[in-house]
Amino acid sequence: MDFQERLQRAVQRGEQRRTQSARHQILEQLSEEESRALHAQARAELSDHIEHCLRHLADTFPGFEFQTVLSADGYGAKVRRDDLRARGGRPLVHEYSHLELLVRSYSNSRILEVVGRGTVANKEVLNRSAYQFLNQLDLETLKQQVDQWVLDYAERFAAAG
After folding, report:
1. Do residues 63 and 79 touch, judged by C-beta distance below 8 A?
2. Which portions of the sequence form the region Disordered (predicted)?
3. Is the pLDDT score of 36 beyond 50?
4. Cα separation of 93 and 83, whole Å?
5. FRET label pair with 64: which of 36, 123, 139, 154, CA 20 to 30 Å apart?
6. CA–CA separation, 95 and 93 (whole Å)
7. Distance between CA 39 and CA 75 in Å, rounded?
């Protein structure tokens, strides 16, 4: 094989790589669109579940205010309450309690992430996150995680009571 033939083959391999790269980009774009659609669908379902759980929490402990959250950080809900308490003959103390659960907005990492932050009587008692890759998504597992966070918070709030 002389130089001319090797040059021709090198050019052909380069053209094949370019074609494969273009195909790969097209497939990746489709997968990006599919990922966005899957994330939006899962986010809506999980946000509804979060709202359902936090409404039940607010019903269980009168005084909590429920609020749907739609922000740049994500979608979900939160409950909050302010209490004035007198403990052990001391003057009234303002105590703030809240629980916020959010499904983060879509990112290039192609994950569905849920974050939770909670405070009972001015003390942080919950700061957690869980995620799953969209191509391995199991919403039931994330729903169970949300359920557990709400139950943990309810137990801590009741104990502080």
Report:
1. no
2. 1-21
3. yes
4. 8
5. 139
6. 6
7. 12
Relative to beta strand 93-104, strand 111-120 is antiparallel
For the record, the structure tokens of 55 come out as 């409404």
Q: Quote the radius of gyration of the chain (alpha carbons, Å).
A: 25
Tokens matching residue 112: 């569905």
Average pLDDT over residues 39-45: 95
Q: What is the pLDDT averaged over residues 41-50?
A: 97
Q: CB burial class (10 A; 0-12, 13-18, 19+) of residue 82? A: exposed
Give the whole-angstrom CA distance, residue 77 versus residue 66.
7
Asked whether the predicted pLDDT for residue 30 surpasses 70, the reply is no
Contact 63, 50 (CB under 8 A): no
Distance separating alpha carbons of residues 10 and 95, to the nearest angstrom? 73
> What is the arithmetic mean of pLDDT over 28-52?
88
Helix or strand run (H / E) with residue 47:
helix 3-60
- Domain edges within the chain: 43-160
The pair of structure tokens assigned to 24 is 């790969």
Amino acid letter, 73: D
pTM: 0.78
